[in-house]
Prior knowledge:
- By secondary structure, this protein is of the alpha/beta class.
- It has two domains: 9-144 and 248-282, Rossmann fold; 154-246, ACT domain (Alpha-Beta Plaits, 2-Layer Sandwich), CATH 3.30.70.
- The protein is built from eight helices and 14 strands.
- The strands form three sheets. The protein has a seven-stranded mixed β-sheet, sandwiched between helices. A four-stranded antiparallel β-sheet has the order 9-10-8-11, covered by helices on one side.
- Strand 13 (268-272) and strand 14 form a beta hairpin.
- It is globular and about 60 Å long.
- The N and C termini lie far apart (60 Å).
- Residues 38-42, 102-105, 115-121, 124 line the site of ribose-5-phosphate.
- It comes from Friedmanniomyces endolithicus.
- It is an enzyme of class 5 (isomerase).
Amino acid sequence: MAPQKSPDNDRIEAAKRKAAYRAVEEHFDSSMRFVGIGSGSTIVYGVEAIKDHLEKNPPPPNHMNWFVPTGWNSRKVIEEAGLLPIAFDSLPRETMIEVCFDGADEVDEELNCIKGGGACLFQEKLVACRSKKFVCIADYRKQQKRLLTNWPSIPIEVAPIAHASVLRELKLLGSPDAKLREHSVAKSGPIQTDQSFYIIDAPFKTLLSPLDVKNGSDGSGKDGQWDVEALAARIKMISGVLEVGLFHGMNGYEAQAAGLQGGQKPVAVYFGMEDGEISVSRAEEIKK
Ligand SMILES: O=C[C@H](O)[C@H](O)[C@H](O)COP(=O)(O)O
């Protein structure tokens, strides 16, 4: 018997697709040269929407649109859509990516994100930080007031040799149940990232936001209560950690206003909602 589709699943996929088309309509145009493409199931609709846009609005003569992948999976999606990939390390040195589109596992009210549920986070952060703006596409399950509300843990990319010591340090930071992510078939061992690193999933108490801290809450990790920024910085300090799946700090607008390049946080998140509507959370644009 053919596999049955659940109505819930259909609703989620429809929500992702609708959000992707709106995000692309508002942030992509055919004259762009370099566009970043994230990883996961949602970005597939982003690439579909870009392709559709390019078919309806062809680029100027002799103009090439290049798409920067964030890993093997993302490159495959770009190629299968007939778009042109360019490796991150082949970008001209002074060039910024005009926009990057990517998904997220959870997004809080201040647009901090958890990413890495699909084992991609390092290259996604590289691309986000080289982009003038990161535009996030998600469905209603990802929209939460605080991180670690619905999504259970923070993905952390680690050097294989260091995984046991990272697990020990995470325990000291308040995550006794952090686990190395393994394939569902146990004999296949740990999942490896595009960098041939491992992923640790570390559960913590629901995180405080930077605004909570500004308003006086203590997110320093005492009693295991962390805020996004303090925890991300602390985990990044552990030897053997390549990157943390917390996207926080500045967004592209803020980074450029400060004379820097891109930022980790999205400038806008497009959530496809259960009722078919789209909810958009936007960061304030900073006028020069
Ligand atoms: O590791 C994967 C990436 O960070 C994805 O962007 C994230 O997990 C969201 O994936 P999906 O669109 O499949 O929910």
